[in-house]
Specification:
Layout: H1 2-9, H2 15-73, H3 78-109
Helix pairs in contact: 2-3
């Protein structure tokens, strides 16, 4: 009975209720740590998505410049023009796909961004 009086004085209804409060505090700390880790991971993923979008922009710009170069080379070396056109179109297509991937990833991560 002395123990029950001590628990009541502490504002607890009994041993079980105090144990529940202690467990709640420990779980709250654990959830806080998980929340911190998740927010750190989200910021890293956001940075990665930004890098992917930037890569898509650079691939597209490189493809455009390569296309211009292929047209300039056409007057002096016809044999070199075809491979350059193939490369420029591949770079342009890759740039478009990479930009689209970045946009889709950005939309997928938006629920996690605070």
């Amino acid at each position: 009975d002395d123990e029950r009086i001590g628990y009541r004085a502490a504002g607890c209804g009994g041993k079980g209720q105090c144990r529940d409060i202690g467990t709640g505090c420990v779980e709250g700390q654990r959830i806080g740590a998980v929340s911190s880790a998740v927010s750190s991971a989200v910021s890293k993923v956001e940075g990665t998505v930004e890098l992917i979008r930037d890569r898509g922009d650079r691939l597209g710009a490189t493809g455009l410049e390569m296309s211009k170069l292929a047209k300039d080379v056409a007057w002096c070396d016809r044999d070199l023009t075809t491979p350059m056109e193939v490369l420029s179109s591949a770079l342009l297509r890759s740039g478009q796909c990479t930009k689209r991937l970045g946009l889709e990833l950005s939309a997928a991560i938006s629920p996690f961004v605070i």
